[in-house]
Automatic annotation (TrEMBL):
It comes from the Bacteria. It comes from Streptomyces camponoticapitis. It holds the Pfam family SurA_N_3. SUPFAM superfamilies: Triger factor/SurA peptide-binding domain-like. PANTHER family: PEPTIDYL-PROLYL CIS-TRANS ISOMERASE HP_0175-RELATED (PTHR47245:SF2), PEPTIDYLPROLYL ISOMERASE (PTHR47245). This is Lipoprotein. Residues 1-24 form the signal peptide. The keyword Ligase does not apply. Keywords: Lipoprotein, Signal.
Length: 219
């Protein structure tokens, strides 16, 4: 039972990795792109599709007005997570670690069981992490890769030193890739591996639930 509870909480921690902070600066050198990561474009249309899916799910919720009100910076949140996932993927590739389909499925099943079922898990993550049912696997994959990356580094992420060890790898990877963000969404902070400054109030509850072992990445 303890293991199941830990799985659910670490999943919540994975959501924090998608929490951006926003500043307005930079040049729009890539029309139609929300960002360019390692020479690969993240299209505005792709980002907007993710935002639209969340808004549709929120509209269908009994708490629609509150959910929408509390996620005013949803575009920045989604773009931050899309950029961060590309950085994490390269860092994981360089370290030779992978998140298998089995890893993702078993983690999601454990989280659902801890939450009282798949429906309850989906409702919780829509409320606390602005995730649709189809976006949950991506958040879980992020958590699995983060855990395996830390293990490959021999980093004890329950300590500040271990957290900094993981962050240093992500910073280095971010620098290598080169992140160019459309100024309408903010500017990339290489040293913090996230977008600039803006509050994400709907993640407050998730932050309180997060275990100390999660490395301070993208939050």
């Amino acid at each position: 039972m303890h293991r199941r509870r830990r799985t659910a909480l670490t999943l919540s921690a994975a959501l924090i990795a998608a929490a951006p902070l926003l500043t307005a600066c930079g040049n729009d050198a890539h029309p139609g792109a929300a960002a360019v990561v390692g020479g690969e474009r993240i299209e505005v249309s792709t980002l907007q599709a993710q935002v639209r899916d969340v808004r549709d799910a929120q509209q269908a919720s009994p708490q629609a007005a509150e959910l929408i009100k509390n996620t005013g910076q949803l575009g920045q949140v989604k773009l931050n997570s899309m950029i961060f996932d590309r950085i994490l993927q390269k860092a994981a590739d360089d370290a030779g670690v992978k998140a298998s389909r089995k890893d993702i499925q078993s983690t999601r099943q454990a989280a659902a069981q801890q939450s009282g079922g798949e429906e309850q898990l989906e409702a919780m993550l829509l409320q606390q992490g602005a995730l649709t049912a189809d976006q949950i696997d991506t958040a879980i994959r992020r958590e699995v890769l983060m855990s395996k990356l830390a293990q490959s580094l021999g980093a004890n992420t329950t300590t500040p030193e271990g957290q900094q060890q993981v962050l240093a790898v992500l910073v280095k990877t971010s620098e290598e890739l080169g992140i160019d963000v459309n100024p309408r969404y903010g500017a990339w902070d290489v040293k913090q591996v996230r977008l600039g400054e803006a509050r994400t109030p709907w993640l407050t509850q998730v932050t309180k639930e997060a275990p100390p072992e999660q490395a301070p990445t993208g939050a």
